[in-house]
Amino acid sequence: MSLENIISKSIKDNNHPIGFDVFMNLALYHQEFGYYRSNKTIFGHKGDFITSPEVSDLFGFSLAKQCKQVLNDGDILEFGAGSGILAAQVLFELGRLESLPKKYYIIELSAQLRETQKDTLKKVLPELIGRVEWLTELPKKFKGIVIANEVLDAFPVKRIRYSSGNFYELGVNFIDEKFKWERLKVPFANSNIPFSMNFQEGYTTEINLQSGAWVHSLFDLMTEGTVFLIDYGMTEAEYFHPQRSQGTLKCFSKHKSNNDPFSDIGSQDITASVNFSNVARSAKECGFEVAGYTTQSMFLISLGIENYLKNEENEEKKVKIAQEIKQLVLPGAMGEVFKVMALSKKQSVKLDGFKELDLRGRL
Ligand SMILES: C[S@@+](CC[C@H](N)C(=O)[O-])C[C@H]1O[C@@H](n2cnc3c(N)ncnc32)[C@H](O)[C@@H]1O
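Above: the input record for the complex with S-adenosylmethionine. Below: its predicted structure, written as tokens.
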């Protein structure tokens, strides 16, 4: 049975369109055929998209410097560790800074990716792999640092469309052997929609219902520590900007993006940008302090990423490092679309990564 058959059968069995979040969950995470469960190469130049740690080790090295400041004898817990390269970078640099955590936990939904992560760490950091432990569920208690790079954008979202004063959910139906959007009849009520924003007829956007619950569960399990969320996203005012009339949903395959989640189901990534104001609201509701919000560019610059370039003596390596830094920090590359948010519990340190620019006031 193919993933298309499985999804269409669930629509037929339901006798009703399914929510896009249900569709996205199956397309990305179905046990056997979901995109993140496949054996194909997803990350890096040979895959479908490139994330910051895949661009350069300096991303993880800089993040490690930020971790050192707030580790306080705690451990690290990384969600959705992709190829495992970020874990290797962070551990390597923390080793160099003589600040290694006792444990580096990874929670990864995909069994295939867990194997990839083990292979990466065995290959590039065999001396530290003993500190890495893969968890299949959230720990009961945790003290330390939580890292999630490009994880929230991979959470299944609802898709909604504005019409005559209300938003309606766009469900997914299967008609004439094709998946089609279908507007559901009952208005979609959600307190995260800023109705004061004067939406145009047909305005379409996404709502991530899982991120709030996820933030709450982190707060419950953390005794103290800091969460670093790094993702492409924006404030609420930007997220629901009138010009963003078709939302933020995107699909990726072989480094090209498209807007059709119904093509190549299970073979392409599906993502939606993060509404960081919404994440901050959920965080404050449960008791986190929002300890910083800035662009990836200013986060890495605040942590002194350019020092790696200054300290490199080999001319060839210098050229390579300069190119990598450009890709991570330039506004036209990954510097401004990506943001970093820190949430802290029982900690009052002024975080180094936000010292050059802190945009919390805009959230
Ligand atoms: C876009 S990839 C990012 C991978 C990696 N962090 C990087 O930056 O290269 C999204 C990752 O999040 C994982 N993921 C999605 N939802 C998750 C969840 N609820 N818990 C843990 N991992 C999750 C996926 O399996 C995948 O590894």
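Notes for the reader.
The longest strand covers residues 222-234.
The chain has one domain: 36-156+208-348.
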